[in-house]
Write a structure and sequence with these properties.
The protein has one domain: Rhopdopsin 7-helix transmembrane proteins. It is elongated. By secondary structure, the protein is mainly α. A two-stranded antiparallel sheet has the order 1-2. The protein has 14 helices and two strands. The protein starts with a helix and ends with a helix. It is about 70% helix and about 0% strand.
Length: about 475
């Protein structure tokens, strides 16, 4: 390996490792802020602003809870999400903590590798930037092996999506039936294999960083090979301690998220069929009502009955649509987590498989392995903030649309008050006047204003739509 390749493989992973540290740290920070109801923009506020707003110390405010509960009219989403009532937040906190620790170890790359001129394989000749000793190498390898906890939590997160979406489990059921056992198994396997590597002296120079590796390099039990001093059967332990469980978890994640995707697609098909049948039924009812004979008094009870049935059907359709949208949002979030999880480890698996088979991996594959492996926390950060970005840009779009609508409405009423008349004699369209009831004539009598406001009360369907929007936004945060 040339000097330039050694520098690239030692320096470039530091960038992705640093981004992973920042990404994992942000997730931990955001989850804890949500749990303790701390405003995430406390550092942007001026001194005394929090005291004026809430009367509490800097960084804590009641407005956070009010903003979180704003617009959530359903019972399910009325409670603020915390670590106590949200398995998603607990899993993300545990997974990000594991990512944070292992990203620090990956960020060091070749620094902890021993630089000892009297060592058996003299790593200073084949590794760039190694300034450590055996103790620093062992410490780095311990935390890298401890990173096997992260794939376990990826699988546990996919299990959460599957059970809550497809099986419609409640948070309490998932916590007591699956989550607690998942925490125990993940942490026990991570610490168990890491400690076993210490006892068996498996941690040595692994070219890019320290991990499970034979020492000296290319040692073995063959007749023409040097006997191994440390890291005996390192190739088998790599797959037993790390890559075997890793790809088992990747298969589990792919299977569960495929089932979730198929379920959501089925909901889409059923929703489209229901919408078409509902539209056809509503059209038939309207046509029958229009074609019905008799006086208006005789047709009034049947009209009221048909109207109430139509409204109930419309409410039912909106509720089904709300549930479908939430399932789609959560399923898409899970698919992004699963995709980035597989992307991070595909190159590392190729390298280790070729090494186990006795083949030498190409330098390009080794470089991609070194670049992508430390980046799990950064990709998780991108997926985590994706719903927040969608809500932010959606809110900005609504603000622009509302500002344009308000400008057009004000322009219309100003022209009407100023006495500007049209060809038709200055008469306003009754439909436009009924749709824009917030702008009231200042010369209107108080009794007329009260009657006009009474006619502008919101229909139940508008409340249901607001409820659907709130639930969809909450689903995107998961």
């Amino acid at each position: 390996m040339s000097q330039h390749k050694q520098k690239a493989i030692a320096i470039v992973p530091k960038l992705t490792g640093f981004l992973s540290i920042l990404g994992s740290g942000f997730i931990i920070y955001d989850v804890l802020c949500s749990h303790f109801n701390i405003q995430t923009d406390w550092f942007l506020k001026k001194s005394g602003e929090d005291d004026r707003n809430s009367g509490t110390s800097s960084g804590f405010s009641r407005s956070g809870a009010m903003s979180n509960a704003k617009g959530r009219s359903s019972r399910r989403f009325g409670e603020r999400k915390t670590l106590k009532n949200s398995a998603y937040y607990r899993l993300m906190l545990a997974m990000s903590t594991s990512d944070f620790l292992v990203s620090i170890a990956w960020f060091c790359t070749t620094w902890p590798i021993p630089k000892d001129e009297l060592s058996l394989d003299n790593p200073s000749e084949s590794v760039y930037g190694n300034v450590g000793n055996m103790q620093s190498c062992t410490a780095q390898a311990f935390f890298i092996q401890l990173g096997i906890i992260t794939p376990f939590y990826n699988a546990l997160l996919s299990c959460y999506y599957y059970l809550t979406i497809r099986r419609e489990w409640k948070e309490k059921d998932f916590k007591w039936k699956v989550e607690i056992y998942g925490h125990v198994v993940s942490i026990a396997f991570g610490f168990g294999t890491s400690i076993a590597g210490l006892i068996m002296e498996l941690y040595n120079n692994s070219t890019v960083w320290c991990w499970i590796a034979p020492y000296p390099v290319k040692c073995g039990d063959g007749p023409d090979q040097t006997p191994c001093v440390r890291g005996i059967n390192a190739g088998l332990y790599r797959w037993a301690f790390y890559y075997g469980p890793l790809w088992f978890m990747i298969i589990v994640v792919a299977l569960l998220m495929s089932l979730v995707y198929a379920y959501v697609r089925g909901l889409d098909v059923k929703m489209n069929q229901y919408t078409e049948s509902y539209a056809a039924k509503a059209a038939r009812e309207r046509s029958q009502e229009m074609d019905g004979g008799g006086s208006s008094n005789m047709r009034r009870p049947s009209f009221i009955k048909a109207f109430s049935v139509t409204k109930m059907e419309e409410i039912k359709e909106q509720r089904k649509h709300r549930k479908n949208e939430r399932s789609k949002a959560v399923a898409n979030q899970g698919l992004f987590y699963a995709g980035t999880f597989a992307l991070v480890w595909i190159f590392g698996t190729i390298v280790r498989a070729m090494q186990l088979g006795g083949a030498k991996p190409p330098w390009a594959i080794i470089f991609l392995f070194a670049v992508f492996t430390p980046s799990q926390g950064f990709f998780n950060f991108l997926v985590y903030v994706r719903p927040k970005l969608i809500r932010y840009f959606s809110g900005k779009k609504k603000e622009r649309r509302n500002s344009v609508d308000s400008f057009n409405s004000n322009q219309f009423h100003v022209s009407g008050i100023s006495g500007a008349s049209s060809v038709e004699g200055g008469k306003r369209d009754a439909s436009l006047q009924s749709e824009d009831v917030k702008l009231i004539d200042p010369f209107m009598k108080s009794s007329e204003k009260g009657a006009l406001k009474a006619t502008s009360s919101e229909a139940p369907t508008v409340k249901i739509k607001a409820e659907a929007d709130a639930s969809s936004e909450e689903a995107m945060s998961e």
